[in-house]
Structure prediction request, 443 residues.
Amino acid sequence: MDIDILKEYIPLYKEALILTLKIGWQGIFLSLILGLIGAAILHFKVPVLKTITGIYIEIFRNTPLLVQLFFIYFALPKVGIQITAETCGVLGLGLLGGAYMIETFRSGLESIPTIQTESALSLGMTNGQTFYHVILPQAVSVSVPGLLANVIFLLKETSVFSTISLMDLMFTAKDLIGMYAKTIECLFLLVVFYLIMLLPVSLLGAIIERRARYGQFGD
Amino acid sequence: MDNLGIDVLFKGTNFIRLLQGLWVSVEISIVSVVISIILGLVVGALMTLEKMWLKVILKIYLEIVRIMPQMVLLFIVYFGTTRVFGWDVSAESAAIFVFSFWGIAEMGDLVRGSIKSIPKIQFESAFALGMDKKQTYFYIILPQTIRRLIPLSINLITRMIKTTSLVMMIGIVEVLKVAQQIIEANRKTSPNAAFGVFAVVFLLYFIVCWPISRLAVYLEKRWA
Prediction:
């Protein structure tokens, strides 16, 4: 391993990391919004929208992100929908993540006993107040570990962005290997940068999981 | 519809080639799933043992698999190790190795979770009835564990099939690669083929994965 080469490559990887994080967090934000909306639709059994949400979940959970991205990036322009690679990445990640987030939020909502709703209603709260002040806070604390697992999963999935020529970590590594054939240095930096990105999230996950458990069980 | 490239699929052997491409991914996933389930059972059982050094090693293994994208692992095995050790690995064996490495950890964690989820009272009751350790495990714990495990491992199969779409990146000609080849070959006569062909690939993956994940949901509900 050559230290000089590492030094030379680090700025390139840094740039790629920033781009990966940018698209990653935008996608995750989108998936959280989709997840909340979808879970609320399923929870309140809104007619028609309920069926659409169900179909959406099944489609995006049963196809790989790579195929979804190819479809959005290469196929949609043929029917007149032009999207830049970055938007495509955010959209693909958001739609895939949304399908997983809905399930996580929904199981959180389902885990709250009906007596909570009944008690709140009998205290004179409206439906909206009950959902916002009683059900949602409890459901979120139950869903947190699942949400963080989804976040890690989605940040990992960003590695397929390289296929639609986004200059993410994977793309940079592949590109540098192709040009200078310093395979070992490139792969080493790739691993290091993924660790920099994901290890903090994973550790944070462990801490928050413990705190969420504390909120729930008090031990 | 012919301007969206559906017709391209029925030219010559194009559709059969797509299916063959899909089969390459499915084949790699089946081999990896079988290896993952068998070795995952062993690793999962090891995870429940109260041995400090074993716990640390398995924890590190699990964490590596959880953090590193499968694509990075593929690159390390296919481009990295071949460079360092100078051996010759075919893309298929590299893919099977990586997906098994990943699957064993996932499966092990599922097995550990299922064993841990059996309430302690089951062990205690069995002992109180005079069963020995072997009998308790074989007649009481194992059947319950397997019931919880089967839906979860079926889910692992669909995840494996979805992840094998990555093998395109190390040069295996699977369904996406075939799709690209078909689109390239028909660029002149049918410039919009990308839509039809990628839509069909999308659909093919859905047709393969959807029934499997429905089966998992069904079993989970029935045995819960």
